[in-house]
């Protein structure tokens, strides 16, 4: 004869309590945002990168016979900016509509010479023209592509309730100021996209440095007496 044991009232009550606790634990409210579990504070305050075009217009004066010194200086500064953070070709556009066509051609030639003197190779320069249908005298235009760093939008510290200690979560502002400072300091935001190729390593120089390190010798370049970092005594008296 088989006997079927019925659960006691205590066991039934315990089972009901465990089920209720399990449901409560799965539906319990949490102060931890989903983003808190994804990446780091710096990942959540990423620096944006936008492409922009830098322009320089050089007016072609009807009565001038050559490019002015001020315009030459402006071209030189623009070329230096291209060398510093420009990407792609340095575009030089000749105005097809000009009150002084001879000076317009001379201005482009002058810009090419200035660019070459500043280390820009001729193959990095792209020539074009503009203003075919213009009814006015057009300027010579220099242009290149660059990138701009966009800092994250940091919330005001005044909006944060620092007295709230209900959780141990990081504040929404954590890491934002670091990213904003970096966006302001980075020389070429294009580097954030990994667009600049790395220079080739110098295995011979690396071998020399490693050998000096093994011998316990200084690895820095030696200085001559004329290159000494000693402060001059000329003004010490």
UniProtKB/TrEMBL annotation:
Keyword Lyase: no
Alphabetic keyword roster: Signal
Keyword set includes Signal: yes
Record region (Disordered): 210-237
Pfam hit, one: Pilus_CpaD
Signal peptide annotation: 1-22
Superkingdom of the source species: Bacteria
Ranges annotated as biased composition (Low complexity): 221-237
UniProt cross-references to InterPro entries, sorted A to Z: Pilus_biogenesis_CpaD-related (IPR019027)
Protein name listed in UniProt: Pilus assembly protein CpaD
Species for this entry: Hyphomonas adhaerens MHS-3
């Amino acid at each position: 004869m088989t006997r079927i044991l019925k659960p006691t009232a205590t066991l039934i009550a315990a089972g009901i309590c465990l089920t209720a606790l399990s449901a409560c634990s799965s539906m319990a409210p949490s102060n931890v945002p989903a983003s808190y579990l994804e990446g780091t504070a710096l990942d959540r305050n990423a620096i944006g990168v936008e492409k922009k075009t830098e322009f320089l217009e050089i007016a072609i004066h009807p009565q001038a016979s050559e490019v002015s010194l001020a315009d030459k200086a402006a071209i030189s500064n623009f070329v230096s900016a291209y060398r510093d953070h420009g990407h792609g070709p340095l575009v030089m556009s000749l105005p097809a509509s000009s009150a002084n066509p001879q000076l317009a051609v001379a201005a482009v030639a002058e810009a090419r010479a200035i660019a070459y003197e500043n280390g820009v190779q001729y193959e990095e320069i792209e020539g074009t023209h503009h203003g075919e249908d213009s009814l006015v005298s057009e300027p010579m235009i220099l242009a290149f592509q660059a990138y701009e760093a966009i800092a994250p939008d940091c919330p005001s510290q005044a909006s944060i309730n620092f007295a709230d200690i209900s959780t141990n979560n990081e504040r929404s502002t954590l890491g934002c100021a670091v990213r904003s400072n970096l966006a302001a300091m980075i020389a070429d935001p294009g580097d954030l996209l990994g667009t600049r190729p790395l220079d080739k390593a110098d295995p011979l120089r690396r071998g020399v440095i490693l050998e000096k390190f093994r011998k316990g010798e200084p690895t820095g370049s030696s200085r001559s007496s004329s290159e000494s970092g000693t402060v001059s005594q000329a003004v010490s008296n």
